[in-house]
Structure formats: C-alpha cells, structure tokens
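Case study 2.
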Amino acid sequence: MDFVLDASIALSWCFPDESNAYADRVLDAIGPMSVVVPSIWVYEIANAMLVAQRRGRITEDHRNKVTNMLNTLPIQTRDVTLSHTLTAISAQAKALDLTVYDAAYLDLAVAIGKPLATADRRLREAANRVGVAEFSPENG
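Prediction:
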C-alpha cells in the first residue's frame, strides 16, 4: 500500500534530535511500499538539510549519508499545476488553517486516496477532519 509522506517525517530521519518512534516505524515500513510526495517535498528536504549544515547542526558528511539513504527509498513525486495550487490547494489551506505547503500533502492524499504519514499535529488534525487516515506502519 502506498502512502503520502510529509517532510516532517523524513526530516526526523535526517536530524538525530528530531528522531521519534513513529518516524522510525514509518521508515522500517517503506520496504516494499512506494511513498508518494508532492513535488514541494524535495525542496523542503534539501533546504532543511542545507540550512542545518550552514548552522552547524549537521556535518557535510552526515548530510551526504542522509542524502544517500533518501536516494535509496522508493519515493515518487507528483507534480501539480499552478492553477490547482492557486485554487483548490489554496482554498483547502484557507479552510483548514494550514500553510499551502502542508495543504499540498493533504491534497495529494485525498487525490490518490491514501493515508498520510506526518509528525505535524495541525496537518494530522486537518487530515482527520477531511477523512484522510493517518498512515499506520503496523498495518502498512
């Protein structure tokens, strides 16, 4: 079963101080599954790691190791049109009091009918309000 992966989960794999049991179980569950992300995901991950390295939070060696690990995962990116982003996703962000970035994950989960893995409380609550299941690694 595929699922939508929010950047908050992947970033917990990147930064030891953000590690948590749920994110670790999500990573362990990926194996035979495909992970689907909106195209913004790649920019969020790359930027967070670059900023962390610039600020001395991680070393270049750590960043390279994480990059290599992420590159081995079966992650499929889904593009979205400007029109859809400016209309449907923006409207959903406004209605659910989310950022447009977070609404992109929710929109994708709704569109493909798959659960969402996120560490973001507001996004998880919004997903629950619109009927998107939280990804359960144990049931993956």
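The helical segments are 7-14, 21-30, 40-54, 60-72, 82-96, 100-112, 121-129.
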